[in-house]
Amino acid sequence: MKKDNFTLRYKVSLRQNLLKQIDAPVVMETHGGYGGIWRRCYSHLDTGVVFEKDPAKAGKLALQRPTWAVYECDCEQALGDGVGFHLPVNFLDVDPYGDPWPIIEAFFSANRDGPSKLLIAVNDGLRQKIKMNGGWDVESMKDMVSKIGAANMYKDYLAVCQMLMEEKAGRRGYSLTGWTGYYCGHAKQMSHYGAVLTRK
Predict the structure, then answer these.
(1) Are the C-beta atoms of 78 and 51 separated by less than 8 Å?
(2) Which uninterrupted H or E stretch holds 170?
(3) Bridge partners of 121?
(4) Averaged over 53-60, what is the pLDDT?
(5) Quick one: which H or E segment has residue 151?
(6) What is the pLDDT of residue 172?
(7) How far apart are the first and last CA of the chain?
(8) Is the pLDDT of residue 66 over 50?
(9) Which of 96, 145, 168, 195 has the CB geometry, 3.0–4.6 Å to 120, for a possible disulfide?
(10) Are 65 and 38 in contact (CB under 8 A)?
(11) CB 127 within 8 A of CB 183
(12) Looking at residue 35, what DSSP letter applies?
């Protein structure tokens, strides 16, 4: 709990700075949790989408934000099915406990008529696992390991994430026009990054 509280202020700052770069944000939160990020960053927004697979947490989120679309389900499967895209989502908030890339991939696969400007805030927990094994047993990292080598994955992890974001966004017609990232948390094992994407 202490580690999570330690990184919370960084999560909030990243999202608040990204929000300044868009006029009418419509947020999609992939992991709503207990709603702490919403209270600090999104409570002024009337509409949005949030996913949470824990029934008790999802119920609290529905009470917390009655004007939002709240889904009790696994976000990756739901995104692949196009859930939540009845709203013009232009701000994606990805905060899993580990690998965010399958979720980002699912978002892009379903978001066929995306906005001209899209912002993505990510809390990524993969770096520690990358340190231990070089990324070979992480499906979302295998191509990058082949490109830059397992020995470079840990020290250059943010650069890896930037390259992955450019690649995945590019397939949907976006250019990466803004990027920020840093390591934080215990032993710098967490990675936070934000992307600004615009249509080519």
Answers:
(1) yes
(2) helix 157-170
(3) 93, 194
(4) 97
(5) helix 150-153
(6) 93
(7) 42
(8) yes
(9) 195
(10) yes
(11) yes
(12) S
Q: Which residue has the tokens 């976006």?
A: 174
Q: In sequence order, which residues have a C-beta less than 8 Å from that of residue 115 and are 6 or more positions away?
A: 88, 89, 90
Q: 94 with 49: CB under 8 angstroms?
A: no
Which alpha helices (H) appear in 39-149, and where do they start and end? 55-64, 75-80, 101-110, 127-133, 142-148
Q: What is the pLDDT of residue 111?
A: 63
Which pLDDT tens digit goes with each residue over 129-181?
A: 898 877 888 999 999 999 999 989 999 999 999 999 999 999 999 999 999 99
Burial of 179 (0-12, 13-18, 19+ CB in 10 A): middle
Closest CA to 76 of 36, 37, 108, 122: 108
